[in-house]
Design brief:
By secondary structure, the chain is mainly α. Helices cover about 35% and strands about 5% of the residues. Bound molecules: iron/sulfur cluster (SF4) (2 copies). One iron/sulfur cluster binds next to helix 2.
């Protein structure tokens, strides 16, 4: 995996939440590679700075981080809402909460991310006016609205039926909290 190469190249260590963590910008980063024949001096591997912290393990709503540095993707909301095309097991529905697509809890709670500066490149800004999508609109989307709204977005990794499957779970969760 490229994050293992990144750790060996000194970019950042692999944290207990299994993300690459850079000491200045936390895990809010994108890894990229340049393939070259140029001879370069190797950097020192990154040093693990998680220490005794276990915030990510304690905060994960589904217990997907089963041990430090160990993630069971079958329990992870990011995996379930993005990569898992089949129906999501009932035991995870309430725990999905309001996560329509992916989940950032184990990164939000990481103290190394609290030091990260905000992005200055508009390309990294939220693309929807409120920073998120309107759940009712997503539920009513036909293919054209889905394609137009998400044109050029990584969210198109999920097809419309999968996004609406997620939206139905979120809607039930929101209804349950309003009762
Ligand atoms: S992304 Fe969410 S569900 Fe997945 S391990 Fe992190 S906190 Fe848990
Ligand atoms: S929350 Fe704590 S234990 Fe988890 S990755 Fe961040 S520093 Fe490491």
């Amino acid at each position: 995996m490229e994050k293992d190469v990144a750790a060996r190249a000194g970019v950042g260590w692999i944290g207990k939440n299994t993300c690459t963590i850079h000491p200045h910008i936390g895990s809010w980063l994108l890894l990229g590679e340049i393939i070259t024949t140029v001879s370069l001096p190797p950097d020192e591997p990154a040093v693990d700075r998680c220490g005794t912290c276990r915030r990510c393990l304690d905060a994960c709503p589904t217990g997907a981080i089963t041990a430090p540095y160990q993630l069971d993707a079958r329990r992870c909301i990011s995996y379930l809402t993005i990569e898992h095309p089949a129906p999501i097991a009932e035991e995870f529905h309430a725990k999905i909460g309001e996560w329509l697509y992916g989940c950032d809890i184990c990164q939000d709670v990481c103290p190394w991310n609290h030091k990260a500066v905000a992005a200055t490149d508009p390309a990294f800004y939220p693309r929807f006016p409120t920073g998120t999508l309107d759940l009712r609109e997503v539920l009513s989307w036909q293919q054209t609205a889905y394609s137009t709204t998400l044109r050029g977005s990584a969210m198109k990794r999920v097809k419309l039926p999968v996004l609406q499957r997620n939206a139905q779970i979120v809607q039930r969760n929101l209804t349950a909290t309003q009762k």
